[in-house]
Amino acid sequence: MGKGEVPVIDMQRVEGLAEEIVNACEEWGIFRIINHGVPAELLKEMKAVVAALFDLPEEIKRRTVSTESGKGYITFNPSTPYLEGFSIDEVSSPGDFCDSLDASPHQRELIYKYINVIRDLAGLLGRKLMEGFGLAGDLFDGWNCQMRFNKYHFCQESVGSCGVFLHSDPSFLTILHDDDDVCGLQVVDKYTGEFTPVDPVPGTIAVNMGDIAKAWSNGRFCNVKHRVWCFEPKTRYSTVLFVLGPNDKKVEAPPELVDSEHPRLYVPIDIKEYRNARSAKRLHTGNTLELFSTATT
Question: How many CA atoms lie within 13 A of 146 on its CB side?
Answer without folding.
Answer: 20
